[in-house]
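Take a minute with the sequence and fold tokens given here and flag any structure token that looks odd. Thanks in advance.
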Amino acid sequence: MIKPRLLLATLLLGGTPVLAQDAETLIIAHRGASAERPEHTLAAYELAIDQGADYIEPDLVVTKDLVLVARHENELSGTTDVATREEFEDRRRDKIIDGQRVAGWFAEDFTLAELRTLRVKERIPSLRPANARFDGLYQVPTLAEIVKLLRAKEATMKGQRRVGIYPELKHPNFMLQDAGIDMVDLLLRDFRELGITPENPVFIQSFEIAPLQRLKQREGGFKLVQLVAPIGGPADEPAMRYAEMVTPTGLAEIAKYADAVGAHISLILKPDGSPTSLVADARAAGLAVHAWTVRPENEFLPPMLRTGTDPKGRGCGDTKLALLLEKAGVTGIFTDGELSHACAEAMPAK
């Protein structure tokens, strides 16, 4: 995780700064240092903090007994060993989530105590085989445990820096419609119990619209981020497309309830690396832009930034980060882990 503060966040080659970053650019640890530890574990979050992340990003789902926990999806078999547990075989279900049929085991069908018996595994072991060495070591963490970790780490830093939290509410419309569970209420409940206020470094994000609007109405001080993708639209507004939301008119509407847009890299950079108009249009509407997601593996990089032909090989993810910062001017970057220094010569000059 590279750190954009006071030139400590320059990309280094042999200790030499090669690109001075904007002092306000935030590094957001996407699911923790997920390129180096199984995602959404306390180990991944702690490593990201040690690497210098400004914020850690937990995706939040909810248990049957209404506890917010961190998983990429509410379906559990991709990131835990639940499919190998005979005692939970009868929990397997098919559900329609945001218009898609999903088969598996779902967090909302398990109590926290039951969830505690599971162990986390690497979600993409073919690309991240080193992470699979940690399979079976970690439990699914709660939001409360993540906040406790942040505070413990901040205490060891003796006030030198703060680390924020950047939670995403996963499928809140589905949870409300299918199970009658209001994730906005649960998040605000937990924040109150944990003593988290708008004065803390917090962003709350969602691909849906209504949860952010409700948060704006109920707790107007928290910074809110509308996520947008290259295709599709928000699950709670099926007639709306993200493509409409990133037009100047759409961004002006987002600005009525959100502080920033979290946008896929392809909405910010063209294939040749030049910027689209999104950042300029967002700024005109009064919105910041945070880009997702810079990943180090070749599989996730365009051909110009790859190194070799192995999909799991580490490419020039840092170059992509440089392009985002230099050419597009985003104010936040989601990244999966400490970025490669191997391709500094390919970076644009200041």
User: Anything to note?
Assistant: Residues 2-23, 340-350 have pLDDT under 50 and may be disordered.
